[in-house]
Write a structure and sequence with these properties.
The chain is α+β, with helices and mostly antiparallel strands. 21% of the residues lie in helices and 32% in strands. The chain has 6 helices and 25 strands. The strands form 5 sheets. Strands 3, 4, 5, 7, 8, 11, 17, 20, 21, 22, 23 and 24 form a 12-stranded mixed β-sheet that branches. Strands 12, 13, 14, 15, 16 and 25 form a 6-stranded antiparallel β-sheet that branches. It is globular, with a radius of gyration of 25 Å. The protein starts with a helix and ends with a strand.
Length: 337
């Protein structure tokens, strides 16, 4: 029996209604996904820049090798903060603090010193190193500091690169940092307290002397001279050592910096190995370089954080990456106006 004309109209109407409902249902997940993607974006506490990372939120601090045989390194361009500090002799090491980005590979990882541990604690960071001085070993073994060390995890969490020789070839992936933290029962959910940042308007109206080129001479040997050059197009400083730009080993991605803070702190050699004791508590003179401009400042240690001050007021940072050079005296710092 053929359907009546009325039945055909009803059937067609029902089909259109079902099709419209299905289309609406298929669009709903897209809208929800878009909302979810918007919701996870937050301002990173250590850069003041929007970030997609929500977990782990805890900062991770890694001691990274800066011996010439360890260059170029992996992970430095993704660090929110980097401290550059003398170890033994004229060789500096880095403490790279990660929170807003998670590099795939980090290293070469080097051994702990007490001042690196203290600086990491300023951000309640999980501390990563491979090896330790006697003093730092006692501190790490006291249980007061959450840490993962290559001495206990060499060949498991830490891997040796075949293209470099020990002790310049120890690396750890961020996935293995997360695995090590999970295995050790470390809480990785608490983000560090935020730093203070300038607004775009404030950053664009900074006053001071022009300083497009900065040199920090840890030694007369150019191998251990850190140089910063302001790129006016990018509005950031690049960094170099021994005439070579500081870039990522894997892809030549350059380290780009928005703040370069240089502080003067008393250094003292304390053992026959040339290890140093560095006074990071007393405060002192400093320079801060931002947007191609230098300002004289003072620094204070606030709960383990090295922060710049001027006329008794805490100075704000330009949103982005920060590099902090700790030097025995400011006379080793020069800049061109």
């Amino acid at each position: 029996m053929k359907p009546t004309r009325l039945a055909c109209v009803v059937l067609a109407t029902l089909m259109l209604f079902v099709s419209a409902c299905n289309k609406k249902d298929s669009q709903e997940p897209e809208k929800q996904t878009e909302k979810e993607e918007t919701a996870v974006k937050t301002t990173a506490p250590l850069t003041g820049v929007e970030s997609n990372i929500t977990s782990p939120e805890r900062a991770v601090a890694v001691t990274i090798n800066n011996h010439p045989d360890a260059r170029p390194q992996s992970g430095l361009s993704q660090a929110d903060l980097v401290y550059e500090v003398l170890a033994e002799g004229n060789v500096t090491r880095f403490l790279a603090v990660f929170q807003s980005e998670k590099p795939e590979n980090i290293g070469p990882v080097r051994s702990a010193r007490k001042y690196f541990i203290d600086l990491a604690q300023g951000y309640n960071a999980l501390y990563i190193a491979h090896g330790y001085s006697p003093e730092s070993k006692r501190t790490l073994e006291s249980g007061k500091v959450d840490n993962i060390n290559g001495i206990q995890h060499d060949g498991t969490l830490f891997k040796r690169a075949s293209y470099r020789k020990a002790p310049h070839n120890s690396y750890i992936t961020f996935k293995n940092i997360e695995k090590g933290a999970l295995d050790a029962g470390y809480d990785m959910d608490e983000a560090p307290n935020p730093l203070d940042f300038l607004t775009d308007e404030e950053a664009g109206s900074l006053e001071g002397d022009a300083a497009p080129k900065v040199k920090v001479s840890y030694s007369q040997d150019p191998t251990f001279i850190s140089e910063y050059n302001y790129d006016s197009e990018k509005g950031k400083y690049t960094r170099s050592s021994d005439g070579a730009e500081t870039v990522e080993y894997e892809d030549d991605q350059p380290v780009l910096l928005d703040n370069v803070l240089v502080i003067e702190a008393a250094h003292k050699v304390k053992d026959e190995k040339g290890r140093r004791e560095i006074d990071l508590n007393s405060g002192g003179k400093a320079y801060i370089f931002q947007k191609g401009i230098v300002q004289e400042a003072e620094w204070k240690n606030e709960d383990g954080r090295i922060l710049p001050y001027k006329n008794g007021e805490r100075m704000k940072l330009v949103p982005g990456k920060t590099w902090i050079n700790i030097v025995p005296e400011l006379t080793i710092v020069s800049f061109e106006q």
